[in-house]
């Protein structure tokens, strides 16, 4: 490119002949094409930018996670930064974001009952709580240590618009060293269901005492 500029400088002196004017014009055309090729190359190599946001105004579970800690109950868990705590919930925590919400609660199973048996029995209770309940899966997690996941859909009504929607929900059963089970339920409209986002919330859970 420097070479072309030097040549152009040489011919930038007063142009007195048709030949010299023609040479400069040709150089200008070549220089324009060269710059266009360089610009195209840079555009092609630029990394793609992802566009954030979902249908719900609260950002679903894709919003950046922040940590909620409860020293008295001895646990910490992440939740989307746009969600807020429902302080009326005392056995664990309930955090809400528009039509999305999550609860973390603690239960003590019958002595000798294993985690899968408890989860199977719990399905009956869950089906009574969520209208239109339809079980999708009940299986061990391959990503959250020792956990079992219940996947299900249910009927919901938007707190924002009042319209009906189908919710795609997950419920994690996570065994604790003291024999209790931490039960994490994440609920939200099916149109912005994010399996990885729900998993990431479950992975942040920890006992702090």
Q: Would you kindly provide a brief summary of this structure?
A:
By secondary structure, this protein is an alpha+beta fold.
The radius of gyration computed from the alpha-carbon positions, rounded to a whole number of angstroms, is: 30 Å
The total count of helices amounts to 4
The sequence of SSEs as H and E is HHEEEEEHEEEEHE
CATH topology of the largest domain: Protein Transport Mog1p, Chain A
Number of domains: 2
What's the CATH architecture of the largest domain? 3-Layer(aba) Sandwich
CATH class of the largest domain: Alpha Beta
The CATH superfamily of the largest domain is: Mog1/PsbP, alpha/beta/alpha sandwich
How would you characterize the overall build of this protein?
The strands form two sheets. Strands 3-4-5-9-8-7-6 form a seven-stranded antiparallel β-sheet, with helices on both faces. A three-stranded antiparallel β-sheet has the order 1-2-10. The protein is α+β, with helices and mostly antiparallel strands and 209 residues long. Strand 6 and strand 7 (148-157) form a beta hairpin. The chain is built from four helices and ten strands. The chain folds into two domains: 2-45; 61-207, Protein Transport Mog1p, Chain A (3-Layer(aba) Sandwich), CATH 3.40.1000.
SSE diagram, text form:
Layout: H1 2-10, H2 18-45, E1 65-70, E2 75-80, E3 84-85, E4 93-97, E5 100-107, H3 115-129, E6 134-140, E7 148-157, E8 164-175, E9 181-187, H4 195-204, E10 206-207
Antiparallel strand pairs: 1-2, 2-10, 3-4, 4-5, 5-9, 6-7, 7-8, 8-9
Keywords:
209 residues, alpha+beta, 2 domains, seven-stranded antiparallel beta sheet, three-stranded antiparallel beta sheet, 31% strand
